[in-house]
Write a structure and sequence with these properties.
Blueprint (H helix, E strand, L loop, with lengths): L4 H12 L9 E5 L3 E3 L4 E8 L11 E8 L5 E7 L2 E7 L20 E4 L29 E3 L14 E9 L6 E10 L10 H27 L1
Parallel strand pairs: 7-8
Antiparallel strand pairs: 1-10, 2-10, 3-9, 4-7, 4-10, 5-6, 5-9
Helix pairs in contact: 1-2
């Protein structure tokens, strides 16, 4: 029987450090409500005290807003000098005033880097004055960000994150109820458990035994 020593070494190392897993995603939130008036903007802040570089593709945002006529609104995230527009007046590409669907904070909109539906399509399958996430024809609440969240890849998570919401028409008002961001730094645990070292030593011992047996078989031939 032939045994690939390189594969065996790799397997031993993987087994030994299996406990050093990726860190769990982190979620930070701001639950302080702010009113959104006509033709005005508000800014809400989430401060992250500590955090490493953002793992590519791990960043997402959940934003709970109560507001009629979603086509009035623009959502922008700013961090470390970089700004990304999450949503830019859905429906304005085909309707001057934008989509007339409504938002409720009980069905927060989620913005990710990759999703089947773009932010421009929010409310597209709703009827006039329907609520996104509640009406049966428009239950989806997860959308691809208007601008790519990849702009934040590798950015240090710690510091202030700013959400700016602007209302750009008369006649419809509302409030930001809450919002959150979720991210992963891809970090691993710094020190493996003692059991991991034991597994590594056992694996290396097995490799040594295989190597000795191979040398003995070669000496007999």
């Amino acid at each position: 029987m032939k045994i690939n020593l390189k594969s065996t070494v790799a397997a031993a190392v993987v087994c030994a450090f299996a406990g050093a897993a990726l860190a769990a995603p982190v979620t930070a939130s701001n639950t302080t409500a702010q009113p959104i008036a006509d033709n005005s903007s508000i800014t809400s802040i989430i401060n992250i005290a500590t955090g490493g570089a953002l793992f590519p593709g791990s960043l997402s945002f959940s934003i709970g807003v109560d507001h009629s006529f979603i086509g009035d609104l623009i959502y922008t995230i700013t961090h470390g000098g970089t700004s990304v527009v999450l949503m830019n007046r859905p429906g304005t590409a085909s309707i001057t005033d934008g989509d007339s669907s409504n938002l409720t904070s009980t069905r927060a909109l989620n913005f990710v880097n990759f999703a089947p539906n773009t932010a421009e399509s929010i409310g597209e399958s709703c009827g006039p004055n329907d609520f996104v996430g509640i009406t049966s024809t428009c239950l989806n609440t997860t959308f691809q960000s208007h601008q790519s969240l990849s702009a934040f890849d590798g950015t240090v998570a710690s510091g202030d994150w700013f959400l700016t919401i602007s209302d750009n028409e008369n006649g419809d008002v509302g409030q930001l109820a809450s919002w959150s961001l979720t991210y992963d730094t891809g970090a691993v645990s710094a020190v493996p458990e003692p059991e991991a070292y034991a597994m590594l030593l056992a694996g290396l011992g097995l490799i040594g035994g295989i190597a000795r047996r191979r040398r003995m078989q070669q000496a007999k031939t």
